[in-house]
Amino acid sequence: PKTIFSGIQPTGVPHLGNYLGALREWVNLQDNATTDTTLIYSLVDLHAITIRQDPKQLRQWKKESLAMLLAIGLDPNRSIIFHQSDVPAHAELMWILSCQASTGYLGRMTQWKDKTANEKGSSEKLKLGLFSYPVLQAADVLVHRTTHVPVGHDQAQHLEFAREVANGFNHTFETDVLFAPETIISPAKRVMSLTDPVAKMSKSHANPKSRILLTDSEEVIRSKVKAAVTDSIDGITYDPERRPGVSNLFDILYHADPRRNDHDQAELVKDLQGSSMRIFKDRVADTVNAAIKDIRARYEDLVHDEGYLQDVAEQGARKANESAAATLREVKNAVGLA
Ligand code: ATP
Ligand code: MG
User: Fold this and answer.
1) Residue 237 lies in a domain
2) What is the interface pTM, i.e. ipTM, of the complex?
């Protein structure tokens, strides 16, 4: 039997990078799962508050993110979909694992180093939760005895840490209660920002033009793609080192195309070699729009269906609590807390 777990922060409407890098994979896994596979997908609101959030905004984003998970095709009868803070075992296991996790290892995490680079070492402003975030992430995965975690490339290091924590815990307490899970990285593992193509596309980036939201209309998609940073080199070529902007658009075009499995990316590059930037960008915008227009339409209906969203969240919380309680009990036993 397999257990698939993954999460997304309710820190804004999911973007094309989230979709191609993670969410689409969640749906594929669900749709191809055999009956002995458990699927668990979380809106990780406890992670969202590692940076300051406006309470009203956070509440709204939680609702919108849930509507989006349904709009992309997750089925609450097949997948457990829940808000992380509705399942206290996540935070509880995190504390127990915190007592095992090495601060040296945490300090070397790329995401921590990136997020703190701007603060110039002023540790007064840096929050403990941001530092220990990977421990909570480890708890998220381990508390459901996950076997596989589908995520984008930026989470690979955190999952390596989760495996380390699981193995360390088992070793220390001479148990096998925690499973070290496998990471599943999707082919579109790192969609880059449209305005700064050497950085990944992010929900939390200040410039809204840097990302295509799954709710963007066709016109908005077109205008964002049109404004995407490229370069002044003639023609269309694929060269991520020298031409990060153009190459990112190629990656987006390739991965958003439903026929991607019928041909390889080199063929697509060859086809487009002779096009102008305008025609190339039009093709990218058309393909992205086609890939997400049904999601957008379903989302518009779902987001207003408050009663249904609440039912889904309650049902998800109940099942996720059940799944987590069993592990937590054994962990407490192993440690001597129970
Ligand atoms: P934030 O800026 O708030 O961290 P985010 O865009 O990084 O937002 P997360 O909620 O942190 O989104 O991540 C959700 C999932 O999307 C993770 O599996 C992550 O690896 C994946 N992901 C995020 N950004 C990208 C991207 N640009 N390309 C591919 N996958 C991505
Ligand atoms: Mg992120």
Assistant:
1) yes
2) 0.99
Q: Is 200 part of the annotated catalytic residue set?
A: yes
| Residues 33, 162 share a domain | yes
Q: What DSSP letter does each residue of 214-275 carry, written as one string?
A: TT--HHHHHHHHHH----S-SS----TTT-HHHHHHHHHHHHH-TTGGGS-HHHHHHHHTT-
Cα–Cα distance, 98 to 101 (Å, whole number): 5
Which of these, 35, 61, 31, 67, lies nearest to 48 by C-alpha position?
Answer: 61
Atom of ligand 1 nearest to the CA of 204: 2
Domain that residue 228 falls in: 215-301
Specify whether 203 is catalytic. Answer: yes
Domain identity same for 64 and 179: yes
Q: Which of 62, 63, 203, 319 is catalytic?
A: 203
What H or E segment, with its residue span, contains residue 312? helix 306-335
- Ligand number nearest to the C-alpha of 14: 1
Partnered with residue 150 across adjacent β-strands are 184
How many angstroms separate the CA atoms of 333 and 318, rounded? 23
The string of pLDDT tens digits covering residues 240-258 is: 999 999 999 999 999 999 8
* 288 and 311 co-located in one domain: no
pLDDT tens digits along 254-295: 999 988 777 788 888 898 988 999 999 999 999 999 999 999
- 160 with 254, same domain: the answer is no
Q: Whose CA is nearest to atom 8 of ligand 1?
A: 203
Query: What predicted TM-score, i.e. pTM, was given to this entire model?
Result: 0.96
| Dist. CA 337 → ligand 1 center (Å) | 36
